[in-house]
Each structure stands twice: as structure tokens, then as C-alpha cells.
């Protein structure tokens, strides 16, 4: 049986930026794009070039290799041509090969918000799409408030879809912009839209204001649409957008959909889902939802009692999918066996191969659990996990030892009488018995410590020349005066690889220094021959 292709369109970098408290830096956008590429989505909507400096810079060059890089913006303004509309031209001149234009499709909004006639609005849709097609861009139209518009004036809403399709839009996306439409309504309305446009040209964009964005998306797929828009972990304005982290495994693993449809995300990529979801939350400096479907820490957890005893005999009865199929793990609190397969997989990623009955695996598992109880989280800090694994397994070289360090912050007046803040760090390192002391000034204590520690590593200095700190995030795990602080540091080197390391301490400087130290250790591990590392562990 031939399965129909579904296309996954991620809106995290645009819709996610609408989330209260979320601001993406350029480095955030680059890192999140890498996660989306790893997951295997078909489209990455990067934002609105021209709307702000970050988005404009992000669109100066292509940012994806596999997915279609997509720019978002408005249709042209009424009364001027697409060629004379700065917003449209910013989209067409960006490095993105695809453009998604948002268009009003509710006649009430056309007249009240835009102040133009419904006929003029159709013309703006037609001319904008035609301009994108002429510029060799893959054109898409997000039909804003489509379902409300359809319920108000179905003929006009359908005319917007027809106009966009006839103008050459590859996708016309039906938007439940205020999230108030019910799944049964979605199915019924999509069925009527199919009379004017084929499902292979239609998409769905659902918001979660009634908690039904995932249900509405799946209802639209059942009814005929073939493009799915959503965001990682359901990010988005108000209550969020359809959660791709829930939708994707449902499409890939559930026979109701998997028997009829295929996506660009195979089961091998799906096994990275939990790690990607949690790494994304760490990037946002927020705690992952423990109850999140498929990827939450509690998604496959069972406490002691009848379920736990039954689960030990028949896992499938209490788990709707195998946890390892989405990269998660079974958490039976009465069992010490949980997590071994995940550790073996994580170790293999770093060229470390152990037998399942190796006693060192038990020791590593116990260490990871003990450290997680203290506030560490290795889902978004894989480089720290690599360093920890080598340490527990006894294969971590002693390149250098830190004798002591000091960081100071001083506010003073400079020679011009201006008030300035100066941060200085001193780090003493011993390499092969030789004591090396480095001093550096930075923008803050973490920056100063980073510069000082990397300033002189003796014979290892050449191996970290291309290492740089990219980002730094702090989260308070417990409140009060004895609060525990978790620091996540992102680093990169000349190869383009990025990695995350973690530090935990009641003292923010201690936590930061630990994460910085492990970043350097990981970089030095990278320079070791993979074969030599494998032989030492074996």
C-alpha cells in the first residue's frame, strides 16, 4: 500500500518568539535550527527578515542543509505593488528559498483591521504570491483566522484559498488563530475546502487555547491536509501552538496514521526526540515538563504497586509505545535496571563501547542518578555526560589540575571620572608538575574565568586555540538563601561543532567554573584518537 507524504513545518523560531518571556538571540536561532535539522523536519520558518536586527542577520545566509529554510512576512500593502513594498522585498531578497505570507481571510478583519475591501484583499494575495513565484521562491500563504472566517462567510474564506492556489502557492495553510475551533469542526471545514484546493496543497496551523491544538492538527490530517505546522514543545503566544514533539511520534508510531502516511522523520531520528526536546528546554533555561507526552520524565514512569509489579512482567500493557522508540526511558522506581540501554546508546555516541553486564555500567548509572538528584541534567549537556563517563570508567586523562582560582568584581571611576565595573579572574593550573598562573579581565566573572583558564594550558594550549564560549545560562533550582544554581555553558570550535556542559553548586561562580572546566576537558577529549579511547575502555 502506497503511503501519502506528510510535510512537517516548524514555526518555533517565529511563533516561539511570541511566547511570553522568550527572546531568541542569533546564537539561539542557529542552535535551535541545528536541533530541528537533527530531528528531520521539512521546513524551518526562521522569522521575519527586516522586522528586527536578529532576524535580519539570521536571513543573511542559508541556515539549513536538509530542511527548506523559510522566511515569514505579510502580504503586500494595498495601494502599492509588491515590487514597491519593503516588507515583501525583504522576504524575496533573503537567503531563504521559501516564503510564507500571512493573509487575512476573515472578511470582518479585512474591513476593520486592514481598512480595505474584500476584493482588494484578494488582489494583495494574488500579487504577493505571484511576485514570490516570479522570484523563484516556494510560496506559501497562512490564512489567518481561517476557521472563524469560514464560519462567518464561507464563500469569502474559500475565495482566499482559491486565489492563493491559482496564483501559484505551493501550500495554503488553514489557521485556527485563536485556538477556539473544535476537532469535529476542523474535519468538517477541511472537507469543504478540498472542493477548491487539493489536500496536497493544504496545511494546518493550530493554536492551543482550548488544549486541542494537537487533536485539531490530527483531525485536519485525517480530513485531508498534508502540511503540518507547529512548534517544539508547543511554544507560542498565549497558550502555545500545536506541539510537534507530540504530533511527530503519533504520526510515525501509531498505526492509524503510520499505515497511511509517511514523514521525513524515520524511526532512527525519532529515537533522538526526547534528547532534542529537553535540550531545547535547556536552551530556553526552563524546566522540561515531566508530564509531557512521549518525552516527559514521567511519561513512562510507574511507582511501586500493582502497576509496577505487572509492568515487570508485561511492559506493553502499560506503555502505548516502547519508551526507547522516542529516546525516553522506562522509570520503574522499584527497579535498578532502568536506564541501561539509554546509557549504552549515549556512550556509543562518544565512541565508548561497553557490554551490558559490565559492572562499570552499574556504577555509571548510579553516579548519573545521584548527580541528577543534586540538580544535574545531562539531557541538554551531552558533553558533560561524556566527561563524567570517562571519569567514572577511569579513562579520563589528567591533562591538568586546577590549584585554585579567584574572581573579583570592582566598581570604580576611570581616568575620565566615569563609573565603570571591572572584573578580573586569576586561575592557577598545574601541568606536568609546572604551576601556571593566568590573569584576565572580562565582561563579567564567567567571561573573565573562561579567558583566564584558556590563556595558558602549557603544552595543551594549541589544542584549544579554536575553542570559544558561545552562551551561558543560569537557573535557580531551589529558592531561599541556600538556593542551588545550575549553569549551562555552550561552546564551539573551528569544526563547527557545538556542545553543552553543566555545573551545579550553591555558588554561581563555582557552578560556572565547573561547566567551563568540563568544556575544556571535552575539547581535549575530542582531540584524542577515537581508536585509542575505545581501546582504553574495552
Q: Can you tell me about this structure?
A:
By secondary structure, this protein is of the alpha/beta class. The protein has helices spanning 12-15, 26-39, 53-58, 86-92, 107-114, 118-134, 146-152, 154-167, 183-193, 213-223, 244-253, 255-258, 267-270, 273-283, 306-313, 340-349, 359-373, 382-393, 445-455, 508-527, 530-537, and strands at residues 4-5, 7-10, 43-45, 68-74, 98-104, 138-144, 171-176, 202-206, 227-230, 261-262, 301-302, 331-332, 401-413, 419-431, 434-442, 468-476, 485-492, 498-505. 43% of the residues are buried. This is Citramalate synthase.
Looking at CATH, the homologous superfamily of the largest domain is Aldolase class I
Shape, per Cα inertia axes: globular
CATH topology tier name of the largest domain: TIM Barrel
Q: Sheet with the most strands?
A: 8 strands, parallel, barrel
Spatial sequence of strands, sheet with the most strands: 2-3-4-5-6-7-8-9
Task: Please sum up the structure shown.
The protein is an alpha/beta fold and 538 residues long. Helices cover 39% and strands 21% of the residues. The chain has three domains: 4-265, Aldolase class I (TIM Barrel), CATH 3.20.20.70; 347-399 and 457-538, Double Stranded RNA Binding Domain, CATH 3.30.160.340; 400-446, no CATH class.
